[in-house]
Amino acid sequence: MKITDIKVIVASPGRNFVTVKVVTDEGLYGIGDATVNGREKAVVAYLQDHVAPCLIGRDPGRIEDIWQYLYKGAYWRRGPITMAAIAGIDMALWDIKAKAAIMPLYQLLGGRSRERVMVYKHVGGLDIAEVVDGVQALREQGLDAIRAQVSIPGLPPIYGTGPSTDQAAGGMVQALPTEEVWATHKYLPLVPKLFEALRDNVGWDVHLLHDVHHRLTPIEAARLGKDLEPFRLFWLEDAIPAELQDGFRIIRQHTTQPLAVGEIFNTVWDCQQLISEQLIDYIRVTSVHAGGVTGLKKIFDFASIYHVRSACHGPMDVSPVAMGCNIHVDVAIPNFGIQEYSGYTEATHDMFPCAWSYERGYLQPGEAPGHGVDIDEAVAEKYPYAPAYLPVARLEDGTLTSW
């Protein structure tokens, strides 16, 4: 079997997605996700100009060799654009291999380690009462794990607490970056009040999560972790920017609050210190940003040695293709923790027919050969690319800060 064509399809059925289609001379093809939210066209150029020409005529079954070829062969290693391009190819190759074997992908990864995949969804609100109502509503829908976020009184709503991030719905993903306002000293006393209210109203038989979105310093995050300990959160997510991984040691020294990080990581080397020194409890890499199924497995296998569990990033800009690959890995690995799941627009589901399914807080990969996700190119043509960016954040005095 040889690779005869590689197509790159860009469409926006609610969010912009970059989809890779690898075609072979035996009629089999595979689909991959190569989306980098807000930098989609950079990945398209990388794939079309620098990756696809190098792979025509190669054996699609040599997945590890092709992964290494694309990673080491460029010399300029790592980074979100390179690793998303590798991911798109890698997912498509695993799709082809599993289709050729007439097996769902998880069977090639060792078979099931669990019967279903627990997810968490998000609730945001303008005040604590609104968040409590939202969490109670998701509990009634069967959710066992819920992330809760609340706006800071006196400031405009920030990402995760205000309008939808659905690009088609005119939410917070805009043609140019919006600028949000952040105030740490107003946020720190607010969050413990939120979770006190949630425990009082929702009880203790639900996993509660919270995302800081990289906005604190290590000692601020340590203080927040200590303040949240009485409410037994499932995790505190992205408490600080992770470029300086030593910062997590400061947090660890002061709180027993479980910590999660990694959605912007691209390789196992980005999280080596955090995992090997057991400075985190959950690693949140996702297939599209960490080099596909191959890259994801490298990270999760390494993490399993150090009691660190998986927690794949799963917002709306991780396409149903990457979500499908995540689910197949989730169901197979021994150290699965949880899967983020935001859901998709109806148009997105029309464009990406899926074998995987969601029901009352849990996902199943399905039994279709491959990873079980296809692309309807006729539907994709109805949703052309539209420039869109995530917000940026400034302090009240105008200083740019981490978003």
From TrEMBL:
Mandelate racemase/muconate lactonizing enzyme C-terminal domain boundaries: 128-258
Which Pfam family is one of those matched by this entry? Answer: MR_MLE_N
Enumerate the PROSITE patterns for this protein. MR_MLE_1 (PS00908)
Superkingdom, taxonomy of origin: Bacteria
Family of this protein: Belongs to the mandelate racemase/muconate lactonizing enzyme family. GalD subfamily.
Q: What is this protein called?
A: D-galactonate dehydratase family protein
